[in-house]
Amino acid sequence: MATVELSFTPLPAHVRTARLVATAVARRSGVDESLLDEVRLAVGEACSRAVEEHQLHCPAEPVRLALSDMADRFEVEVTDNCAPDSAKVTGVGQESKSTGAGVAAMEPGLGFAVIAGLADNVEISETAAGTSIRMSWPSAGVVR
Which of 37, 87, 100, 136 is the most buried (most CB within 10 A)? Predict the structure, then answer.
């Protein structure tokens, strides 16, 4: 169940806001203090990537951020609503998922490798509608 959902216009200034909101919700969800920098950096990287895609392909569409607090996991999903450029992506319409370091070998760009190194678990789904990056970290499941 989503704790917080946020949509924002694809402007770099809004990435900072997304990082701050994600860090606050992660702290509230019981994510260990030692992991909060990783949450902040991974969310910033995913949102920056989405903002770049939107500015290039669909500047009027908002970027979507969903933050969920499940039993023992804190999950973040960053979704862009831009159809991928066919020259950039092969197999449009198929989902590609990976966890950990395998993301870097499967997906182009340094940003995905950075995210994979920061999050405990990462899934990347690319469809004709756009790209979704789902990241999660362990949490105590405590809501204050």
Answer: 136
Residue-wise pLDDT tens digits, 10-46: 999 999 999 999 999 999 999 999 999 999 999 999 9
Chain-centroid distance, C-alpha 55: 17
* Domains (range + CATH), the chain: 2-138 (3.30.565.10)
Distance of CA 6 to the CA centre of its chain: 12
Per DSSP, which regions of the chain are E strands?
Answer: 2-8, 63-69, 73-79, 121-127, 130-138
**CA within 13 Å, CB half, 106:** 16
pLDDT reported for residue 97: 43
Q: How far apart are CA 1 and CA 63, in angstroms?
A: 19
Q: Which amino acid is at 116?
A: A
d(CA 60, CA 38): 30
